[in-house]
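Q: Predict the bound structure with fe (iii) ion.
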Amino acid sequence: MKDVAGGRRLLVRDLAQLATPGGTDAPLRGGALADVEVLRDAYILCEDGRVTAFGPMRELRAALGDSGGELEELDGRGLCALPGLVDCHTHACFAGDRVDEFELRATGASYEELHAAGGGILATVRATRSAGGDGLAEAVRRHRRWMRRAGTTTFEAKSGYGLDKETELASLRAIRENGGIPTWLGAHAVPPEFDDPDAYLDFALGEVLPEAAQLAVAADVFLEAGAFDAGQARRYLDACRAAGLALRLHGDQFTEQGAVPLAIELGARSVDHLETTGEDGIRRLASSEVVGVLLPSSALFLDRPMPPARALVDAGAAIALATDFNPGSSFCESLGVVSTLAVTQLHLTPGEALSACSVNAAHVLGLAAEVGRIANGHRADLVLLDAPDWRYLSYHLGGELVAAVIEGGEVTWRRAAGSSEPNEPR
Ligand code: NIG
Ligand code: FE
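A: Predicted complex:
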């Protein structure tokens, strides 16, 4: 993560609303997930890249005191400020696309059939291997711009489309050097030069892990029929944990293969997908510290059942939301769209959706002391919605919602003047 800007002051003033989830040392769960603090007619003061004060406009004068110095002002009339969104599960380091497969799926081919026939993930592996380090860095930068325009200021990205040493390490570098939080998805699929998952894991753990562990923050595995089974996932994750990496799992996407108990046993930070998780998995996850990361745009894109989000929250589980942005199962970089799906398809409230793609997602990445809330001392990462009410994040389906993005106290993206009707100041 880039260092915050030094010596700069930015005042965002006259905001219609400021909304932030609450925070604790642990991910929010139960009723706390829906608790959003909302201030009307608000300001936020950012100094040296951090939030140093926020509150109602009537308290601004006292907050500023008689401190002199240059103060940049941003007019927040008609806008709502939220914490910059945190996307804790993306596959943003890839080359090429799968638009041909997208069309084939419309005429009856299934995602699993395309994968079994050497397409799917392996089609993206071929494109990614031939992109080169510069091509991958450019791809991450392009995808980061897309995410930023949708309000995401912190993003995780996984390798997993290289599956050879050179491309896996180049992917992790491209992610790290372009603002992402890198996860080594060394066990995403078995590449064609190996015909057996165990032989591939011998290579990945022996040859790639030592350097991957220096570049990545976490490790991830695709635990699924046709990918890696529970024994192979355990072997991979055990070795990654011993090398100092935090653990994540892709689990229960198409079939239940024991991902939830394995995640709990190994103390993983998260288990992600959960479209097929049944009652036992819900109960176990709810009584654990593992965060269930829900990816409704992936379920939508593949026309799969939605994960049991309401049951998980009601049972007391900690959940997060993410895009799963990738060229095959979720070509969607917008956490706003994901929030709409969370409310309309997963039956979460707008407040639960916001907490799940901000503070709880930050916990999954181990960054909750820095990002995911508007709080004094936190990084000044903010998204300003062109909306009279913060709940437009989930209400405005796929609309032109983001007016500006602030990262480390600097405006890093702003919608061009005149590109749409300004929102009426309230
Ligand atoms: O999370 N399921 C495994 N991996 C990705 C999809 C990757 C792809 O289709 O390229 C996922 O859905
Ligand atoms: Fe994924």
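A: The longest helix spans residues 197-215.
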